[in-house]
Every structure is written in structure tokens, then in C-alpha cells.
Write a structure and sequence with these properties.
Number of strands: 16
Amino acid sequence: MTIGEKLSKLRIAANMSQEALAEKISVSRQSISKWEMNQAQPQIDKIVQICELFGITADQLLKGDVEIETTPSSKERVNKYFGTDGFRGEANLTLTSMQAYKVGRFLGWYYSSSLSGCTKTGYRPRIVVGKDTRRSSYMLEYSIVAGITASGADAYMLHVTTTPSVSYVTRQDGFDCGIMITASHKPFYDNGIKVINRFGEKLDDKTTSLIEAYIDGDLNYLGVTGKDLPLAQREKIGCIIDYVSGRNRYLGYLISIASNSYKNLKIGLDCANGASWMLAKSLFGALGAQTVVIGAEPDGLNVNNGCGSTHIENLCKMVKEQHLDLGFAFDGDCDRCLAVDENGEVVDGDAIMYILGKRLKDRGMLNGNTVVATVMSNSGFFKSLEKIGIKCEQTKVGDRFVYECMQEHDYSIGGEQSGHVILK
């Protein structure tokens, strides 16, 4: 048995989440995840802390079998619904309203249970929920919220908003988790459920495996007896709270971090008929820019349809013909952005990372003198960084892997050619 397998077994037997363990030994949740997946090993001082926490010797952890009480949840599951971008599929075909209800039911129960590390009797979890403009997003939202409140948790509804805003609000306002209903750049008939932990990060694989066990009716895996999770009754049924104020505060936050006025700039925006149509024009307008907006008439069926970052040709044409200074194109949930220069030429994620990386380096703010990218980035991007003395660390495809690398090494910037760019 590997160190990672032993650590996972110890943690689950102690009814402790990855987040709870990370907090106890002062590391990131990503570090715990990597240790448990045998992608890295804990440092010596962390091994000492782990042994003290679980009452074992270093030899037991590093060499011998760890003797712990085996619970039904100690066996491993392979995730079949949740991938790196959450639970995604065609609405009511591979992702149904009943499955969405079960996701809500589980999360509403989980964050008040000892399985999550909760020790407060009668604790009432708070979960914030956002969605994009797809017709099925409303159906899935109501299903999820019904599940959350049926389990006794409170659901705070951001309504149509962006994925980054859900991440920000979850972390900033102290929610137990956040949920974003979206299939990002996919067609309208697809949808998805992204679950975000209280740190504003994508939920770890171990916890999503518990969600999947509940969806499949495997209560033994959760260590739960009976036919279902308990239903809240009477005054313990959860509340549904309108939380559009959270979305507005996120907009205020974006305005506050801009270092310059955009006065006299003419900017084209393509909102993909998606979540950014609620925010983009207001944001750039508040910063003083003159804006010309397309892809801002969502009808539930036209998200990403011939518009947005996956169909940037329309924005390129508009910027050039209307003599705009630049343009930005977003996808359905606004977690990726591509730019267009004054000549109507595309500035992709690699180019954006180059520009930002160089700016950070010039200001002495590029941690580790490194930019994080995926193996899909262009070779010219790596050579350009090398010419200006910036190193590049590559990860597997997926913004989750980019973020985990950034967290582990405290890097300042990373992203993907497709337009996912992360700054910290």
C-alpha cells in the first residue's frame, strides 16, 4: 500500500475532508490531493504532523501496513460523472434533473456531517448557486436548490452570473461551497454542474466520488445506514435566499482592481449570449470605455452559437470595420477570454499570458520567474518567453492542473491557449 493510499484511508476513517486535513497541517488542499493520488510525497515535517494527527508511527506510514478500522467508505471508487470540468453532459440525457437534485441533496447533507469534518451540532450549511443562460440551467438550478434545502441547508441564488463570480463569492462570503450550472463553451443542449469548495477552487476528486456514490444509491460507501439521507423537517428545512447582491459586489471588486481608466478606449465585447452579458458592458462602461457589444441577447438556445470565444471571427470583423481599439470575447460562463487587437487579429491565451507575464516580470512581481501553461501551448510561446528570460512550467491539459501547479509553487500566472488565464 502506497503512502497516498494509507493517507486517504486514514483521512476517510477519521471522517475528515481534504480541506480539513490541509488546514490542520498547514498545506494546500491540492497538496493533499497530490499525495493521495501518488503524484507527490509529503515533506518530512508534514509526515511528522500526519503521524501525530492520526496516532501512528513514521514506520507505519512509510513502510508497514497502517492498522486502522476499515469503514465501507475506505474502498476506492472511479469517478464516472465528474471530470476536470465537473459533471457535464446533454441536459436530461446524460445529466438529468433527478441527478441534479441528488447533487443538491448530498451537498446539503455533507457539509453538516462528520464526513466533511463538521463538528458543530445542528450546523446549517450555506451554499451559493449560479447559472448561465441555457434553457436547461433554470431546470437544473431549481432541482439542485430543492435538494439543498431538503437536506436542511440554505441556498443562496446568484441567478445568471459567471463562474469566476461564484468562485469569488464562495470564498469571500464564507460559503461552505458554491455551485455553477454551465457547460462553458459547449452548445445550448449541453449543461454541467461545477462544484467549488470554500476556498473558491474546484472540488477535490475524493469528495466528488462521494457525490457519485449517492447518485448511484451506494449509501454504504458513505457509511450511512437506511434507504436515503435524512430529510430536514419543520423549521430545519433550508431557506432559499436571493443573493444578487453577491454578484454586484463581484462587479465592484473587478472595478476596484483596475489600475487605469479606460477613458477614450473603444472596446468591442462578444458575450457569447452567455453569463457575461449581465456584467461585461457595465464593467467596461464603469471604467470609462466606449463599448460596442454583440452576443448579448440570450434566449436560452443561442449560447455560443456563432459567437463568443469559440467563434471569434465576428468580433475580429467588428473591431476592424468599426475602428475599435481592441476587443474581448468570452465563452458561455465567462471563465475564458480571448482578445482581438486593433487590426482585427486574434490574441489567444498564450499571447495574453506572454503580455501579462512580461508585465509582471518588469515590475518584479513574477513569482519564481515562471509562467505555467499546458502541453497544448504553442512552441513559439515557449521560445518567446525564453528570449525575455522567463521560465515556463507545463502541465496536463485543464485549468485545474494549471492552478494546482501555481498553488504548489506559488507562481503568479498560468493558463491555457484557449483563454483560461489565472492570476494570483
